[in-house]
TrEMBL record, chain A:
SUPFAM superfamilies: Helical backbone' metal receptor. Pathway: Cofactor biosynthesis; Fe-Mo cofactor biosynthesis. Signal peptide: none annotated. Residues 48-448 form the Nitrogenase/oxidoreductase component domain. It holds the Pfam family Oxidored_nitro. This protein may play a role in the biosynthesis of the prosthetic group of nitrogenase (FeMo cofactor). This is Nitrogenase iron-molybdenum cofactor biosynthesis protein NifE. It comes from Desulfoscipio geothermicus DSM 3669. It comes from the Bacteria. GO terms for biological process: protein-containing complex assembly. GO terms for molecular function: nitrogenase activity. Keywords: Nitrogen fixation.
From TrEMBL, chain B:
It comes from Desulfoscipio geothermicus DSM 3669. PANTHER family: LIGHT-INDEPENDENT PROTOCHLOROPHYLLIDE REDUCTASE SUBUNIT B (PTHR33712). The keyword tRNA processing does not apply. Belongs to the NifD/NifK/NifE/NifN family. This is Nitrogenase molybdenum-iron protein NifN.
Length: 474, 488
C-alpha cells in the first residue's frame, strides 16, 4: 500500500497529519481521515464550536445575539459577516456579558439574567439567542434555567445555544445552532407532521446566509418558476417567518455541512422531505432548478424552469466564455469550510477552463470526500483540516495559480505569488446563481490575469537565480 | 475642563476592546524567529489570527493546543506538549511564547510549570519558552500586550556587562511607526534594542524565498543584553507598574527608565528627540529640525480647520493619550475619550493636556460602542479617531472616522499608517484635517440652506434638485447631524 508519507514525503509534515492527506490515483480510496479533532500545534485553520453556531444563527435578523462569556468571543464576531437584511438590523450588534474574573469565580448566572433583562427592555425583541463559551461550560452556569426564567418573565423566546468551544469542532457548533433552531420552530404542544394544511409549492431554503443578497437572488429564481420560499435558514430570516417553517412542503439545502442535521430532524419531526441543491455555477444552478421542478411534478413549472435556465444562461454565457478563453489551462487550489462548497467549486472551475490541483476543507465529511475524490483529476491533492504549512507546500508543488479560501489564507497566497478568491462569509458580492457565476468568473480573471504578477512574482532574492523551482511556472 | 466619567454595566453592547491573549500575540510577532501558541480550544487562535491577518494583510501563524473535552477535564499538558513538539518541527523557532486562554486559566493550568517540565523532558534547557498568563477575562488586549512584553524580558534578561546601547520599548504601533522611530534613532546615531520590533515581520516585502516565520524582529540575544543598557525609553505612560517591562529592568537591573508618551505631536516628539540628544551627548540633526519646521507649518496651515473639530478618541489607552494630546496641540479638543480598558489613569494624565479645552470632556473606561455612540450624539462629536470598529459611529450617527490604531479591517494599509515623529505627526494631522474638510464640503451647502433659507419660509423653488440629492438622507447618513442642525 502506498501511503502519504511515500506519496508526499516532506521533512515538515507532521506524522499525525499523514492520514488526512492523499493524492488521487496514488492511493486507495477511503483512506482520508476527516471529521476528527485538530492536532495540537498544527496551526489548523478551523475555528470553534461557538464559531459554527454563531455563523449559522447570526443572520436571524431580529434576534438579540448575546454571548455569555468573556469579551473576546463577542469582539471577534461583531458584524463581520456579509448577511443582508430586508428588515431588522438588530443582528448586526454583538452583545456580551463580558465576564470578568469575579464572575468566573462566583458564577455568571445573575449577570446573564440582568443582561437579558436590559437588552429585552431596550430592544423589544421577541427572540434571544444566548451562546455559551468555553468558560461557561467549565464554571457550570445553568443556561437552560436562566433562559427559561427570562423567557417566562418577558413572555418571549430565550434559547440557549450550547456552544462551548472545547466540546468539539465547528461542526458541533452547526449542530448546536440547528438544535436552537429546532426549539425555535417547534409549535406549542410539540412537533407533529402537518399532513393537512401544508403549503403547496412552498420550500424552506436551508443553508443560505444571504451574503450580498444571495438568498434574494435564489428566491427570485424560484418565484419565477412558481415556487414560494417559505423561509430561509437563516439568511434574512426573522422570528415570525422561522416559526412558519413546519408548513413548507420541501426543504432545499445549499450548505449541507451546517444544515444536514436540521433537514434530517425536520423530516422526522414534521415529515418534510429534503433535497440537496447548489446554486454555485451554471451547471449546478440549472440542475438544481430542474430537480426542484421535478419534485413538484408540475409540467408548467418545468417549462418555466427551462425558460429561465435558457434565458439566464444566454445572458451570461458570452461574458463567461470571454473569461474562459483567458483562463483556460490555469490551475486552482481550493481550501474552504465545507465539503459541499468544495464539490461545487470544482465543477464551477471546470466551467471556466480551470483544473483543480488541490482541494481541502475544514469540516468536510466522509461522503463528501468520497465525492471530491470521484470528481477530481488524478494527481489532485485532497486534504482535510489543513494548515498554512501544508497549503504553502501543496500550492507550490502543484503549481497552483489561484487559491480559493478565506481571510486567513489570503495573505499566504499573495505572498507566494498566487492569485486569490475570497469565498468566505464576509464577501460583499454574490457568488450564487447566474449573476454569481459571472461575478465568480470575473473575480477569477481579475486576480489570475492581473498585471501585478508581472512584477510581484519575479522578484529578487535569488530564487530564480539559484534555479530553485519553488514557485509555479506561469 | 469639566469632566465626567461613566462606568461599566451588565452587558457590553458592541465591544471597544479585544481580549488579553490577542494582545499577547503581537509582541511575539516582533521577536526574531519566534512562534506563539495559545493554550486553549482551537477557536481562540483562529479568531485572533483572522483578526490580525485582516489588519496587517500578512500570514499570521499561531499555534493552538486544541484543548478538547478530555483535556479540559484531565488537564491539558499533553496537548501543550504535542503543540510544542509540532510547532518546533514545522517552524523551527528559536523562541516560543505560550499564552493561556480563558479555558486554560479556568481549569487551573499551571502553564509555567508545564513549560518547565517540557524543557526538562526534551532536554532543552536553554530554549526560551515564555509562558504568559492571559485569561480573556483578566483584562483587554492592551494589558495582554504589555504583559507579554514584560514576561519576555523577565524570561530572557540576565545580568550582563554594561554597554552604551539603549532599550526602546514600544506599545502596539504600526510597522510604519516603528520604522520611523528606528530612523530617528539611527539619525541620532544611537545604538538601541527596540522591543518588540514588528516593522519588518508584520509589513513584509514580497521576497523570495518565502519563509514560514517572517524575517526581522528583535533578536533574542539583544533582549538578553537589555539589562546592560545605559537607559530604557518606554513609550508607555499609561502602562501600569505591574506589567511595565521598563520598570522591571529598572528595579531588577538598575537601568534608568524614561517613561515617555508615544512620540506624536510637537511636545512628545521633542521630549523623545531631546532625550536622545541628551543621552548621546550630541545635537539634533538638521534633517529632524527641518521636519519639525514642516510639522509646525502644517499645524499653522490647518489650525482653524482643526478648531472646528469636536472629537471622539477611542482605543488602546496609550494611543488614545497620544492622539488626544496631538490633536489638542492644534486646537482640536475631544468631547469623548474612551477605552475598553479599565485603565483609569487616562483622566488624570490628560488633565493638564486639556486644561484649556473650552468644552466638556467625557471619559469612558471599560466602555463599549453603544455608550460611545450615545455620548457622541449628546456632545455633538463631528470626528471620530480610532480603530475601524468606529465605522459603527459613521453608519449610525454620520460621524466621519479617521482610522488609526488596531485593528483596521475595512480599509487597506493599517500597517503603513505613519503617525509618529515630526513627519508622522504631519501626516496624521493632514488625515485628520482632510477628514474634517471632506465632511464639511459634503454638508455645508445643505446645512446653510436649511438654516438660513428654508427657515425664512421662502419657497424652496430652485433648490429642489439640490435638496432631493442632498436630503436623500436615508442613503446618506452623513447628513443626519446636518438635519438635526448640529453642523458646526
Amino acid at each position: 500500500m502506498i501511503n502519504v508519507s511515500t506519496a508526499v514525503p516532506n521533512d515538515n509534515l507532521i506524522v499525525e497529519r499523514q492520514s488526512s492527506i492523499l493524492v488521487k490515483g496514488r492511493q486507495r480510496k477511503n483512506q482520508l481521515k476527516c471529521d476528527a479533532e485538530s492536532i495540537a500545534g498544527c496551526v489548523s485553520q478551523r475555528a470553534c464550536v461557538y464559531c459554527g453556531a454563531r455563523v449559522v444563527l447570526n443572520p436571524v435578523t431580529d434576534a438579540i445575539h448575546l454571548v455569555h462569556g468573556p469579551i473576546g468571543c463577542a469582539s471577534y464576531t461583531w458584524d463581520i459577516r456579509g448577511s443582508l437584511s430586508s428588515g431588522s438590523e438588530l443582528y448586526r450588534n454583538s452583545f456580551s456579558t463580558d465576564l470578568k474574573e469575579n464572575d468566573v469565580i462566583f458564577g455568571g448566572e445573575k449577570k446573564l439574567a440582568r443582561a437579558i433583562d436590559e437588552l429585552v427592555e431596550k430592544y423589544k425583541a421577541e427572540l434571544v439567542f444566548v451562546y455559551s463559551t468555553c468558560v461557561v461550560g467549565v464554571i457550570g452556569d445553568d443556561l437552560e434555567a436562566v433562559c427559561k426564567a427570562a423567557a417566562q418573565k418577558h413572555g418571549i423566546q430565550v434559547i440557549p445555544v450550547q456552544s462551548s468551544g472545547f466540546i468539539g469542532n465547528k461542526s458541533a457548533g452547526y449542530r448546536a445552532a440547528c438544535d436552537a433552531l429546532l426549539r425555535l420552530i417547534e409549535p406549542p404542544g410539540g412537533p407533529r407532521p402537518l399532513n393537512n394544511g401544508r403549503l403547496v409549492k412552498s420550500v424552506n431554503y436551508l443553508g443560505d446566509f444571504n451574503l450580498a443578497g444571495e438568498a434574494w437572488i435564489i428566491k427570485d429564481y424560484l418565484k419565477r418558476i412558481g415556487v414560494e420560499v417559505n423561509v430561509v435558514f437563516t439568511g434574512d430570516s426573522n422570528y415570525r417567518d422561522l416559526k412558519k417553517a413546519p408548513e413548507a412542503s420541501l426543504n432545499i439545502m445549499q450548505c449541507a455541512g451546517s444544515m444536514a442535521y436540521l433537514a434530517r430532524r425536520m423530516e422526522v419531526l414534521y415529515g418534510i422531505p429534503s433535497m440537496r441543491i447548489s446554486f454555485l455555477g451554471l451547471e449546478d444552478t440549472a440542475a438544481s432548478l430542474r430537480r426542484i421542478a421535478a419534485f413538484f411534478d408540475d409540467p408548467e413549472m418545468m417549462r418555466r424552469a427551462e425558460e429561465l435556465i435558457e434565458q439566464e444562461t444566454a445572458a451570461v454565457r458570452p461574458e463567461i466564455e470571454r473569461y474562459r478563453e483567458k483562463l483556460s489551462g490555469k490551475k486552482a487550489a481550493i481550501y474552504v469550510g465545507g465539503g459541499f462548497k468544495a464539490i461545487s467549486l470544482i465543477k464551477q472551475f471546470r466551467e471556466i477552463g480551470i483544473d483543480v490541483v488541490m482541494v481541502g476543507t475544514q469540516t468536510g465529511r466522509e461522503e463528501e470526500y468520497q465525492t471530491l475524490h470521484d470528481i477530481s483529476d488524478d494527481g489532485t491533492v485532497i486534504l482535510d483540516d489543513a494548515n498554512p504549512s501544508e497549503l504553502e507546500r501543496f500550492m507550490i508543488e502543484q503549481g497552483a495559480h489561484l487559491l480559493v479560501g478565506g481571510v486567513k489564507e489570503r495573505p499566504l497566497a499573495y505572498k507566494l505569488g498566487v492569485a486569490f478568491i475570497d469565498h468566505n462569509h464576509d464577501r460583499k458580492h454574490p457568488l450564487s446563481g447566474y449573476v454569481g457565476a459571472v461575478n465568480f468568473a470575473r473575480e477569477v480573471y481579475s486576480t489570475v490575469c492581473s498585471p501585478v504578477w508581472k512584477y510581484a512574482r519575479d522578484v529578487g532574492g535569488g530564487l530564480y537565480a539559484a534555479g530553485n523551482k519553488a514557485l509555479p511556472e506561469r | 475642563m469639566p469632566r465626567e466619567t461613566k462606568h461599566y454595566r451588565n452587558v457590553n453592547e458592541n465591544p471597544c476592546n479585544m481580549c488579553m491573549p490577542m494582545g499577547g500575540i503581537l509582541p511575539f510577532k516582533g521577536i526574531e524567529d519566534a512562534m506563539v501558541i495559545i493554550h486553549g480550544s482551537q477557536g481562540c487562535s483562529t479568531y485572533m489570527r483572522r483578526h490580525i491577518a485582516e489588519h496587517y494583510n500578512e500570514p499570521i501563524d499561531v499555534g493552538s493546543s486544541s484543548l478538547n473535552e478530555k483535556g479540559t477535564i484531565y488537564g491539558g499538558s499533553q496537548n501543550l506538549f504535542q503543540a510544542l513538539d509540532n510547532i518546533r518541527k514545522v517552524y523551527k523557532p528559536r523562541l516560543i511564547g505560550i499564552l493561556t486562554s480563558c479555558l486554560a486559566e479556568t481549569i487551573g493550568e499551571d502553564v509555567e510549570g508545564i513549560a518547565r517540565d517540557y524543557l526538562k523532558q526534551r532536554g532543552l534547557d536553554d530554549f526560551p519558552l515564555v509562558a504568559v498568563s492571559t485569561p480573556g477575562y483578566g483584562g483587554t488586549h492592551s494589558e495582554g500586550y504589555w504583559l507579554a512584553v514584560k514576561k519576555t524580558v523577565v524570561a530572557l534578561a540576565r545580568p550582563t556587562e554594561k554597554h552604551d546601547g539603549i532599550n526602546v520599548i514600544v506599545p502596539n504601533l504600526s510597522p510604519a511607526d516603528i520604522r520611523e522611530i528606528k530612523r530617528i534613532l539611527e539619525l541620532m546615531d544611537i545604538k538601541y534594542t527596540l522591543l518588540p520590533d514588528i516593522s519588518e515581520t508584520l509589513d513584509r516585502p514580497i521576497a523570495r524565498p518565502y519563509t514560514k516565520i517572517p524575517p526581522g524582529g528583535t533578536k533574542v540575544e539583544a533582549i538578553r543584553r537589555m539589562p546592560g543598557a545605559a537607559a530604557t525609553i518606554q513609550f508607555g505612560i499609561t502602562v501600569e507598574e505591574n506589567v511595565s517591562p521598563g520598570r522591571y529592568l529598572q528595579s531588577q537591573f538598575g537601568v534608568p527608565l524614561y517613561n515617555l508618551p508615544v512620540p506624536m505631536g510637537v511636545e512628545a516628539t521633542d521630549m523623545f528627540v531631546g532625550l536622545l540628544a541628551g543621552l548621546a551627548g550630541g545635537s539634533v540633526p538638521k534633517t529632524l529640525e527641518l521636519e519639525r519646521g514642516r510639522l509646525l507649518d502644517c499645524m499653522v496651515d490647518s489650525h482653524k480647520y482643526n478648531a472646528q473639530g469636536r472629537g471622539a478618541v477611542f482605543g488602546d489607552p496609550e494611543l488614545v493619550y497620544a492622539v488626544v494630546r496631538t490633536c489638542a496641540e492644534n486646537g482640536l479638543y475631544p468631547a469623548v475619550v474612551a477605552t475598553g480598558s479599565g485603565n483609569t489613569g487616562l483622566e488624570d494624565l490628560l488633565e493638564p493636556v486639556l486644561a484649556d479645552c473650552p468644552g466638556e470632556v467625557r471619559f469612558h473606561n471599560e466602555t463599549d460602542f453603544a455608550q460611545i455612540r450615545t455620548t457622541c450624539r449628546e456632545t455633538g462629536v463631528n470626528i471620530a479617531i480610532g480603530h475601524s470598529d468606529g465605522k459603527y459611529l459613521t453608519e449610525k450617527e454620520g460621524i466621519p472616522l479617521a482610522r488609526m490604531g488596531f485593528p483596521i479591517h475595512d480599509r487597506v494599509g493599517g500597517q503603513r499608517l505613519l503617525s509618529v515623529g515630526y513627519t508622522g505627526t504631519t501626516m496624521f494631522l493632514d488625515r485628520i484635517t482632510n477628514t474634517l474638510l471632506e465632511y464639511k464640503h459634503k454638508n455645508y451647502r445643505a446645512a446653510m440652506y436649511r438654516k438660513f433659507y428654508r427657515n425664512t419660509g421662502i419657497e424652496e423653488r430652485g433648490h429642489t434638485s439640490l435638496m432631493g440629492q442632498a436630503f436623500g438622507s436615508e442613503e446618506c447618513p452623513q447628513l443626519i447631524p446636518v438635519l438635526r442642525g448640529e453642523l458646526r
